[in-house]
Structures are given as structure tokens and as C-alpha cells.
Amino acid sequence: MDLEKPLSLGSIATRVISTLVGVLLLYILSVGPACYIAAKTGRGGPLIETLYTPLVWAVQRTPLIDPMTAYVEFWLRLAGTPRVMP
């Protein structure tokens, strides 16, 4: 019978931080597909605007505004919609 070693505090912290970074990355990358779905279906605009307001607010104050705009516009072009971001 194998006895499991108890997890150390460092191991738990590493897992928690890795999970938070992963969730944050998924949140950031999900803005494109969410805009695609909203553009294709014509639904969810206010929900998406509310859900991603913190991301827009954060990105507008960094040099990441141009790459994020290009990323969203890529997804909108896939949906066949014109450019909507200023």
C-alpha cells in the first residue's frame, strides 16, 4: 500500500498560481470567440460588453491595446462583420 506524501505549501501555492494564470489566459483569449459568436448570432452584445469591460479597461491603459484590437478584429473578420473598434 502506497502512502501518499502530504503536499507541501510550495506545491499547493504553485498549483494555485498556475491555475489562476491559466484561467486569466483563457479569459483574455476568449474575448475573440465571444465577439465572433455575438457577431454571427446577433445576440449577447450587452452580456459580452459587461463581461469583458474589465479586460477592455485594463488593456486600454497598456501597450497591449493594438494587439488586442487586432485579435478581436481577426475574429470579427472571420464572422464577416466590419470593423467595430475605434
Please give the structural blueprint.
Layout: H1 9-29, H2 31-41, H3 45-60, H4 65-79
Helix pairs in contact: 2-4
Q: Element order, helices and strands? A: HHHH
Total of DSSP H or I helical runs spanning 4+ residues? 4
Can you tell me the overall shape?
elongated
Largest sheet: none
Structural class: mainly alpha
Sheet-strand content, in percent, reads: under 5%
- Residues in helix, %: over 70%
Mean pLDDT: 86
Sequence stretches where pLDDT stays below 50 over 5 or more residues: none
Total strand segments: 0
Radius of gyration from the alpha-carbon trace, in angstroms: 18 Å
Description:
- By secondary structure, the protein is mostly helical.
- It has a domain at 30-86.
- Helices cover 73% and strands 0% of the residues.
- The chain has helices at 9-29, 31-41, 45-60, 65-79.
- 6% of the residues are buried.
- The mean pLDDT is 86.
What keyword list fits this structure?
0% strand; 4 helices; mainly alpha; 73% helix; single chain; 86 residues
Provide a quick synopsis of the model.
The chain has helices at residues 9-29, 31-41, 45-60, 65-79. With 86 residues, the protein is an all-alpha fold. Helix 2 runs parallel beside helix 4 (65-79).
